Amino acid sequence: MKPGTVVLVGPQGATPDIGAVLAAHGVRGKVALVRAGYQEREADDAEMIKWLGVPAVNLALHRRSVEVFRDDATFTAAYKERQQRLRHMQSFYRVRLDKIEDAARTVSVRYVEPELLEQEEKVSVDQFRHLDADHVERCEALRVAFDRQWRVAERPLVARHRDELRTDLSGVEALVIAGGHVASLRNRIALFDVLGLAADKPVFAWSAGAMVLTDRIVLFHDYPPYGSDIAQVLDAGFGLAKGIVVLPDPKRRVNMDAHAGIQRFARRMAPATCVAMDHGSSLVYERGKLSRASADRLTTTGEVERGWDGAPSRFSSPYLRGGPI
Amino acid sequence: MMARAIKELAAGARTREAIDQFFASHSFPIVDGSSITFVWRGEAERVHLKHWVFGLPSSQQLARVDGTDVWHLTLQLPPGSRVEYKLEVVRNGHGEWIWDPLNANKARDPFGGNSVAHGTGYEIPTWIQPDPTATKGHRDEIWIDSKTFGRRGFGLYIPARFQRNRQYPLLVVHDGHDYLRYAAMGAILDNLIDRLEIADAIVVFTSSPDRLKEYADDERHARFLVEELVPYVERLFPLDAQPQSRCLMGASFGAVATLSTAHRYPGFFGRLLLQSGSFAFTDIGDRNHRGPLFDPVVAFMNQFRAEPAPVSERVFVSCGMYESLIYENRSLVPLLLSTGMDVRYVEARDGHNWENWRDRLREGLSWLMPGPFLHVYE
Fold first, then answer.
1. Nearest-angstrom CA–CA distance, B255 and B34
2. DSSP, residue by residue, B94-154
3. pLDDT recorded at residue A313
């Protein structure tokens, strides 16, 4: 396989297909497994390694982070402070998001000409987009400033773990990133620069693992226990799978019949393509570009395009400057 | 109004066998669309339905099917309703309040309990039942030597996945032992934490020997919670000592204690859960029709209504539509919103009782102290 190949698949569930996907892409030898999204359950990897069908080394990023946070008190205090700040920023972003949602709903039920409402809907979507972009930018700025101030790569413990990981990765054919807690996973991959260390390897990922490889991590759930919610951008992803928003496990999390909701979400995320990834879905990136897909696509006209193959869509947005998406 | 089933009984032979067959072939009370029929069988001078649905007469007489020992009363009950009741059977001029012997649904409370009628569409939530697959938190009872109140015990819940190297939010529950006994709060915490719907949290269950006084905007109570209890628990456990990670909750007078504590220590508890709060107030004068126990509550609420303040960050308010307190709770919501606090308000077709409060815990706690369900994609 060529370096730079990224394969995203759907949730593994009761009948995992990651082993077949690896085999189909010619992976026969040992792989490196990231299970940091499972946090304290990271080491319970026996069953997952069976799914892979090839030997695997668990990179143990969660365990390594626990060691860093335990033994490097100064860095840990600063890191926790950064995380607290990110949480506050997320909370403030959410407050603003809710207000935009409220305003959009209020505007949408006014008794005026449909053409004017359509224009106003575009304004509402633009407000979402502006807020999302601003949030991601500010999160990234905070991370960059933190890395610059703390020279993370030079912290002795972090550097030691990165050296160990470099050794672990030297003998593997591919990097496999499982799902789990998406923020935890993103932070550990970044802390140890795993994608930099594995830059010459193909990457396979699912669920939260797939989400962190995109440009933006979007949290979503149409059926939260408190009744209803709107999707929110958590942070920037690592951008290996560009131009998409990955929505794993849509059967459980997305109301696929909500035409207006799908339309607004797809418009909000455009020009990125929103891809619902159930079990059996896949997206293949080669040389940084999407080369083929088998998934469901949410369109800016509010449809669900089943079995989308990655080709440019016949659906177009009536208002996006980039034209058809 | 007579229910179809009763009409059919009355139109029939009215023999013992026919009546036995009627009882064998129905479940009680009889729910038919939006009507509900309470039935009792036996000899009596009168039979009354006793309930606590605000807006309906609290005592309504059942009619007797002529020539039988069958008594019945049909009411309109909107879909989704849940009503607690008893029957009063009057014999020899003496009334006895009993549980409905034909109805297996019962709710327990500190006064013994009631029979429960479920309207069309009401379902007992599945997440209140102990789930054998859910990991169980650890429960304990510990004591604090309080400068304010002397030696006091409180219940403790430690989540199953507890680890010393993590930091946890804190939830303090007024009348906590009653929430455990009557609102299934132990099983609910186990289930919702296991499902990632609420955060792994340390939970403290407080109880008061004089709640009507201590919960009614009593300065000592607020001081006890904020200056003694929470710091004590923070010494015992790795808690995230931030307002966003402290939640205070209660029902009825416990909700008053929650809001008044937050008012006395603004910003200390960043999350409040107020269930069926006894938020009595007056628009003129200072005496409320509810009696002298409410006088300090009225004084507090009148003050809060005059100068509403953002005492917390996020507030979940719930109340039953069939409570006399619905007016006070509905009135509170715009005031809370006017302060800039993030507020959610939920009503249910239910009364002032523990199972109403139980049924709202999932949406309240998951909004105030969300678990990682939104972040986990396996």
1. 32
2. EEEEE--TT---EE--TT--EEEEE-TT----GGGS--TTSPPPEEEEEEEEETTTEEEEE
3. 60
Cβ distance B103 to B117 under 8 Å? yes
Domains by residue range for chain A, with CATH: 1-325 (3.40.50.880)
Over residues A214-239, the pLDDT tens digits come to: 999 999 999 999 999 999 999 999 99
What is the pTM for the complete model shown? 0.95
CATH numbers and ranges of domains, chain B: 4-118 (2.60.40.10), 126-374 (3.40.50.1820)
Q: What is the mean pLDDT of each run of 10 residues along chain A (325 residues)?
A: 87 95 97 98 98 98 97 97 97 97 96 96 96 98 97 97 98 97 98 97 98 98 95 98 97 94 96 96 96 96 95 56 37
How far apart are the CA of A319 and the nearest CA of chain B, in angstroms?
Answer: 31
Of the partner residues B163, B165, B366, the one whose CB lies closest to the CB of residue A225: B366
**Distances from the Cα of B176 to the Cα of B172, B257, B273, angstroms:** 8, 13, 13
Region B303-327: what's the mean pLDDT?
97
CA distance B151 to B189: 27
Contacts of A38 in chain B (CB under 8 A): 378
Q: Do B377 and A221 touch (CB under 8 A)?
A: no
The torsion angle over the Cα atoms of residues A47, A50, A51 and A56, rounded to 10 degrees, is: 100
**Coil, strand or helix: which one is A305?**
strand
The rounded distance, in Å, linking the Cα atoms of A9 and A176 is 11
Task: Give me the interface pTM, i.e. the ipTM.
Answer: 0.95
Of A91, A180, A184, which has the smallest distance from its Cβ to B378's Cβ?
A180
**Separation of alpha carbons A143 and A124, rounded Å:** 29
- What does the DSSP 8-state code read for residue B283? S
CA A257 to chain centroid? 23
Cβ contact B376–A211 (<8 Å): no
At A168-204, the pLDDT tens digits run 999 999 999 999 999 999 999 999 999 999 999 999 9
Percent of chain B whose predicted confidence (pLDDT) is above 90: 97
Q: Are the CB atoms for A256 and A288 separated by under 8 Å? A: no
Q: Starting from the edge strand earliest in sequence, which strands make up the sheet with B70-76, in order?
A: B30-32, B35-41, B70-76, B63-64
CB B309 within 8 A of CB B282: no
Query: In which residue are the tokens 């966003």 written?
Result: B244
